[in-house]
Amino acid sequence: MNRLAGESSPYLRQHADNPVDWHPWGEEAFAEARNTSRPVLLSVGYSACHWCHVMAHESFEDPETAELMNRWFVNVKVDREERPDVDAIYMDAVTALTGRGGWPMTVFIDPGGRPFHAGTYWPNHPRGGMPSFTQVLTAVHEAWVQRPDELAEVGNRMLDRMAVHATLEPDDHLPPADTLERAAGVLCGQHDPAWGGFGGAPKFPQAMSLEALLRRQVAEPGPELDAVLTTTMDAMASGGMADHLGGGFARYSVDERWLVPHFEKMLYDNALLARAYLHAWQVYGHDRWLQVAGEAIGYVLRDLRMPDGGFAAAEDADSEGVEGRFFVWSEAEIRSVCGSDAEEAIAWYGVTPAGNFEGANILHRPVRGDLLRPPGVERARQALFDAREQRVRPGLDDKVLTEWNGLMLATLAEAASATGRDDWLEAARQNAEFLLGNLRNADGRWMRSWQSEVGARHLGYAADHAAMVDALTRLGEATGEARWIDEAVRSADLLIDLFTDRVNGGFFTTGDDAEKLVTRPKDVMDNAQPSANSLAAAALLRLGALTGDQRYTDAAETVLRLLGRLVAAHPTAFGHLLGAVDLLHTGITEVVVTGERPELVAAVQSAYRPNLVLAWGEPRPGPLWDGRDGDRAWVCRNFTCNAPVDDVEALLAEL
């Protein structure tokens, strides 16, 4: 029996019955490694990772492999979603040692925490030029016994590589004003004109890059940007990466056409993509994109919402041990389920007798962008959805992550404001109440993860605090309720006090009060999710504009100075940070609506205005509210306001 049964991570608990003597990450494991002079075998993955399950089945469930692991190593299992700090520093080592990264991640570490050998997936038998996992175990053990000085030298070299982001030095200058314009040009150059997206297969839905292009299109519309946005957003929503029955998106497409997904569905992807499609609808007015956004939100509220309002992290790619089984169809099944609507559904979803995925059909829309379903197709969709609900569902990772919930909360608040959907606003309130009630410790500090059986675990990271600053600020703007801005301020103060790099600027991943690792990581690049520093920069600039507190603006500028050279040289690696650069150079418009004027509030919220903050409802102390009275609206810049207006037409003219 290993030590994982009581962990908060479903991924760790999936390994509780392995014959491997697993430890969770912690001092106990490293103390045993020191006491027994054995290295640590660190295995990092997550519950929706298909190849993590494959390696577990092939190796970690195999008694003979487990016997070698237990004899020669102290074995540690980590959920990368719960411990992004551990994942980040050792992923740096993996990429330095092998030239590539990914999960499952397997790292061999000395008792002091220094990595000396690493890889990702190793099979149980040699194939494709890869050694078997047992061959790797044997070679590492022999090297540990016979060549310890050589391994120690490798470990020392790795420490420098693992600290590369933490030791970045700030620039004297902020990123230049044309950074967003140049980033848009780079993205247009990388665009696939045939199938949309950026680059070749596999294709990831780069929501933050699309958001950057939408910002640029609003500022300076052009046909090239229009073509990139329209092609990409229609292609993604038409392909099989989109769930045409239940809404939402899978994690990525293995081909260039967005047809065959990696079937796992992540909360963060759906939060970011729903927001991108919402903003695209606001910019272009295409109802099909609002439908896509609404169905992604509907998926999260239906399938990922926990009973008390938190959102689960992900759904697995596999069901009944087979990748994608839950999602695919034969033509005969569709005929059986859809009855008289079957022919229309078969044509609409591109179904064939031979199928498009291992003899079955991934539903997609062959006529790109034609997404608004006629009545017969809608009846068929509902019938197919109901039939699919009777299947064995993919596994649910039911841990609630603060950062990912913050991303979804921000999306819900924006979507409710833009559409007037009271049900979405109520879901946002419930989510915020759940997070505030369950994912903070007694000092008000955010925790990372919650699970119903064990409660909250692990001190939160900079990304958790930054995501909640943004989410609570946007909920305050959506509701006009001052308490949410107060909570955003509290979160921002903790972010600055606990995570600030007081030498170089920006924010460390871990707080001053956190466990000390071999190096203190700093999350700077935007990948599948916004980095902690990008989230913080944008959120703090907006909060500073709402509250008038220069401390938040100054903290955001330290991020931009730290990353100024990097974002200028590699703008597409900082998709979310580009928004903060735009906020800084374009400036933030502050709007205050006093009294009971819901039509003025709705006029501000209805359009996509990424560089605007809105104060209304319950007043808060600060320069935006000082001296404002009556039932009117003020449009301000740097807290200097124009003459108030009292009708929608005049307000829109000012905006």
The CATH architecture of the largest domain can be named as: Alpha/alpha barrel
Characterize the biggest β-sheet: 5 strands, mixed
Globally, the shape reads: globular
Q: Give the CATH class of the largest domain.
A: Mainly Alpha
- DSSP strand count: 19
Structural class: alpha+beta
Task: Kindly report the spatial arrangement of strands forming the biggest sheet.
Answer: 1-3-2-4-5
The average pLDDT score comes to 95
Query: How many separate domains?
Result: 4
Distance between the termini: 64 Å
Low-confidence stretches: none
How many individual helices?
Answer: 24
Q: Examine the coordinates and then state which fold CATH places here, giving the name of the CATH topology of the largest domain.
A: Glycosyltransferase
Radius of gyration: 25 Å
Characterization of this structure:
With 655 residues, the chain is an alpha+beta fold. It has four domains: 10-162, Glutaredoxin (3-Layer(aba) Sandwich), CATH 3.40.30.10; 172-192 and 399-587, Glycosyltransferase; 204-397, no CATH class; 589-654. The chain is built from 24 helices and 19 strands. It has a five-stranded mixed beta sheet with strand order 1-3-2-4-5, with helices on both faces. It has a four-stranded mixed beta sheet with strand order 17-16-18-19, with helices on both faces. A three-stranded antiparallel beta sheet has the order 8-9-12. A hairpin with a 2-residue loop joins strand 10 and strand 11. Helix 4 (63-72) runs parallel beside helix 6 (133-146), helix 8 (179-190) crosses helix 9 and helix 13 (331-338) crosses helix 14. The radius of gyration is 25 Å and the shape is globular. The termini are far apart.
